[in-house]
From TrEMBL:
<keyword id="KW-0812">Transmembrane</keyword>
<protein>
    <submittedName>
        <fullName>Binding-protein-dependent transport systems inner membrane component</fullName>
    </submittedName>
</protein>
<feature type="transmembrane region" description="Helical">
    <location>
        <begin position="160"/>
        <end position="181"/>
    </location>
</feature>
<feature type="transmembrane region" description="Helical">
    <location>
        <begin position="72"/>
        <end position="100"/>
    </location>
</feature>
<dbReference type="GO" id="GO:0031460">
    <property type="term" value="P:glycine betaine transport"/>
</dbReference>
<feature type="transmembrane region" description="Helical">
    <location>
        <begin position="187"/>
        <end position="207"/>
    </location>
</feature>
<feature type="transmembrane region" description="Helical">
    <location>
        <begin position="29"/>
        <end position="51"/>
    </location>
</feature>
<dbReference type="GO" id="GO:0005886">
    <property type="term" value="C:plasma membrane"/>
</dbReference>
<keyword id="KW-0813">Transport</keyword>
<dbReference type="Pfam" id="PF00528">
    <property type="entry name" value="BPD_transp_1"/>
</dbReference>
<keyword id="KW-0472">Membrane</keyword>
<dbReference type="InterPro" id="IPR000515">
    <property type="entry name" value="MetI-like"/>
</dbReference>
<dbReference type="InterPro" id="IPR051204">
    <property type="entry name" value="ABC_transp_perm/SBD"/>
</dbReference>
<dbReference type="GO" id="GO:0055085">
    <property type="term" value="P:transmembrane transport"/>
</dbReference>
<feature type="domain" description="ABC transmembrane type-1">
    <location>
        <begin position="25"/>
        <end position="204"/>
    </location>
</feature>
<comment type="similarity">
    <text>Belongs to the binding-protein-dependent transport system permease family.</text>
</comment>
<keyword id="KW-1133">Transmembrane helix</keyword>
């Protein structure tokens, strides 16, 4: 079968199972977006703490590095006795995987803020918390968002593993298609995931550029 014929067969499979496709796509998106949002809520405050205390930074970065090296399936296996099968253990695995890029970028973004800008803010009488809210975080936001972008795109692919513990998502079609040697079903799950990753990457890249523009304006105001 030609490439066009294979793609046509995959599209036909999606259209003939469209309700199932929408369900799997919603599950996949929920796994990705919820895990990334939770990672943002945890990683950014930890990153702020890490820039204020070297000991905390050592511990946080070490834990983050370990979390990133442990395979998602291994994490799922560890939480399975506590959380069982389904959405929640899959979410824990994806959340753990999403942490490190956001955490490292938060630390890097905050530490890379120009010292003269911070000194100018102090000279204006700002407290450390005000400097963090009004200067450091706005200036670091493009770098932080780059970590969020990386986590989101990575988790689109990692979410396929949720199939193995009943977490749903497009992995249901991909893994089943591999098992049954059913190429149209496999591609019907794989192609939307690839398009989703590309779409999220382009969307986040656009937002990142806008944040970069705002960040430059903030620095101009702070040093002006």
């Amino acid at each position: 079968m030609s490439v066009l014929g294979t793609l046509d067969a995959a599209l036909t499979y999606i259209l003939s199972h469209f309700d199932t496709f929408l369900t799997l796509l919603r599950e996949h998106l929920a796994l990705v977006l919820v895990s990334v949002v939770l990672a943002i809520v945890v990683a950014i405050p930890l990153g702020v703490l890490a820039t204020r205390n070297k000991q905390v930074k050592r511990v946080v970065m070490s834990v983050g590095n370990v979390a990133q090296t442990v395979p998602t399936l291994a994490i799922i296996a560890l939480v399975f006795p506590l959380l069982g099968l389904g959405f929640l253990p899959s979410l824990v695995g994806l959340f753990t995987y999403a942490l490190l890029p956001i955490l490292t970028n938060t630390v890097a973004g905050l530490e890379d803020v120009d010292e003269s800008t911070v000194a100018a803010a102090r000279g204006m009488g700002m407290t450390e918390n005000q400097i963090l809210r009004k200067i450091k975080l706005p200036l670091a936001l493009p770098v932080i968002f780059a970590g969020i972008r990386t986590s989101a795109v990575l988790n689109v692919g990692t979410a396929y593993l949720a199939f193995f513990i009943g977490g749903g998502g497009l992995g249901v079609w991909v893994i089943t298609g591999i098992s049954l040697f059913d190429t149209p079903q496999l591609l019907a799950g794989a192609i939307p995931g690839a398009l989703l990753a590309i779409g999220l990457d382009l969307l986040f890249a656009l937002i990142e550029r806008r944040l970069g523009t705002n960040s430059a304006q903030t620095q101009t105001i702070a040093t002006g």
